[in-house]
Amino acid sequence: MSSLFQILDNCEGLAPIVRFVKLGIFPIIQIGIPIILIIMGSIDLGKAVLSSDDKAIKAAQGALVKRAIAAVAVFFVVTIVQLLFGLFASSGADDSETITGTGDWWSCWNDIR
Fold first, then answer.
1. CA 88, CA 92: separation in Å to the nearest integer?
2. Where are the domains of the chain?
3. Which is nearest to 112 in space by CA: 4, 12, 7?
4. pTM for the complete prediction?
């Protein structure tokens, strides 16, 4: 049975998982969720406008603003996570000072396209 660090050394065993997360999950989180949040807020605002109720319009506007802020935050989550992982992957200026095992998965992450 091979250990995780042996799998990380050649990046072959981990490549399908990394590819799925990097090219499948992250784009859905970064692009899809903000679009869905904005569309849902727009639909709610449209319903409130059609009902011609001033109180409902103000509530829908507030909800739309909150969803837009959440959409921007979700959009930047992927970038922040990658930045933090990059900082943790290299602890010093030269590659000999990397934390044990982290340089391997980080190079595997960066090599997947």
1. 10
2. 4-111
3. 12
4. 0.69
